[in-house]
Design a protein that fits this description.
Layout (H helix, E strand, L loop, with lengths): L2 H31 L6 H19 L1 H10 L5 H35 L10 H18 L1 H4 L4 E4 L4 E4 L6 H54 L1
Antiparallel strand pairs: 1-2
Helix pairs in contact: 1-2, 1-3, 2-4, 2-5, 4-5, 4-7
Length: 219
């Protein structure tokens, strides 16, 4: 990138990082302050806010500083740290969204058994999201692929370029289990929810029409 391009990226990262920190911090404050917001579903949203807030604190400042200078500033170890943290927290958010959609789908299937005060399913989903994400982002630290510079050299991520069986197998696995699979769960769960809502509306419309016809007959 040209110096102007790096400057534009730096400004965008600064805005995104600042807004991300403020909005997610506000979410956490509201959740802690207002008891009515402390529901199992909202707890999953809090987990997402925590991961996004950590990105704003532990990741964005480094890429922002690098973009202002046009080069990576904290060495190889810092690059590995940045790549691991951002990959892990990004996957946490996506898996948490998949868990949230599945929880809502389960609530739709069995609304009578859903307990708004039972935090165990939500806590289980949160633990699963974080453990699953760590399990998929630690391997590059142990030799299955690696973390390195990407793009204009001001950020770091999984090595997408090296064409070796070791690296390609990790990329395919990561893409399948950390993108396609959670995205599929989200699409399936919300697709079922939308289908159920349409059915309810259709039934409600039929019932309303019958009532109107009955009233007309009586009149």
């Amino acid at each position: 990138l040209s110096p102007t391009g790096h400057l534009v990226v730096a400004v965008c990262l600064g805005v995104i990082g600042t807004l991300g920190f403020i909005t997610n911090f506000v979410v956490l404050v509201l959740f802690c302050r207002y008891r009515a917001l402390r529901t199992p579903m909202n707890l999953l949203l809090v987990s997402i806010s925590v991961s996004d807030l950590l990105v704003s604190v532990l990741g964005t400042p480094f890429s922002f500083a690098a973009s202002t200078q046009g080069r990576w500033l904290i060495g190889r170890a810092g690059c590995v740290w940045y790549g691991f943290i951002n990959s892990c927290l990004g996957i946490v958010s996506l898996i948490s969204l998949a868990v949230l959609s599945y929880e809502r789908y389960c609530t739709m299937l069995e609304p009578t058994t859903a307990d708004g005060r039972d935090f165990r399913p939500a806590l289980g989903g949160i633990c699963f999201s974080w453990i699953y994400s760590v399990a998929w982002t630690v391997p590059p630290l142990l030799g299955w692929s690696k973390y390195g510079p990407e793009g204009p050299g001001t950020t770091c991520s999984v090595d997408w370029k090296t064409q070796t069986p070791n690296n390609i197998s990790y990329i395919i696995s990561l893409f399948t289990f950390c993108l396609v699979l959670p995205f599929g769960v989200i699409v399936y769960s919300y697709g079922k929810l939308l289908h159920a809502i349409r059915q309810v509306r259709r039934v409600s419309s039929v019932v309303t029409r019958h009532r109107e016809q009955h009233v007309l007959v009586m009149v």
